[in-house]
Amino acid sequence: xxxxxxxxxxxxxxxxxxxxxxxxxxxxxxxxxxxxxxxxxxxxxxxxxxxxxxxxxxxxxxxxxxxxxxxxxxxxxxxxxxxxxxxxxxxxxxxxxxxxxxxxxxxxxxxxxxxxxxxxxxxxxxxxxxxxxxxxxxxxxxxxxxxxxxxxxxxxxxxxxxxxxxxxxxxxxxxxxxxxx
Length: 181
What we know:
By secondary structure, this protein is an alpha/beta fold. It has a single domain (about 5-175), classed as Restriction endonuclease-like alpha-beta roll domain (Restriction endonuclease-like alpha-beta roll fold). The chain is about 25% helix and about 40% strand. The chain has helices at about 35-50, 90-100, 110-115, 135-145, and strands at about 5-15, 20-30, 55, 70, 80-85, 100-105, 130, 150-155, 160-165, 165-170, 175. β5, α2 and β6 form a beta-alpha-beta unit.
């Protein structure tokens, strides 16, 4: 029998200067029993960086064939598949066939992930973007997560600044292309 997910509440003041998005978010995020704090922190940040109409959290680790985040239009059609972590080539291949846009946000070493995916068959691999979080930023945020967490996130020229518990965490998010088909 699997363990129940824990519910985390995030109150986030988002100021994404790069995209002109300024919002106050109240998110309720289910955390699967096997999900690490780093993965949860990366999912919350990815949600902020992808914020758009139709964005929602997927069912998470409990449903491996579904995206971490999805953007659907008013008809329910999948417009973007957003994964968090280190998805394998088969998952990205399936995602790229299911959605017009695929993005990956990783809190792991991007060089390792890029090596694992190199030469693999991935539909429209050239169009998939890998966003690599600064690992120290993710570790700092993960260490401060509680069941109710409030923080401010500012994004300017791909630099992320997180103010939480009177601490300022910062790091760059690096963009990588998966390569050619």
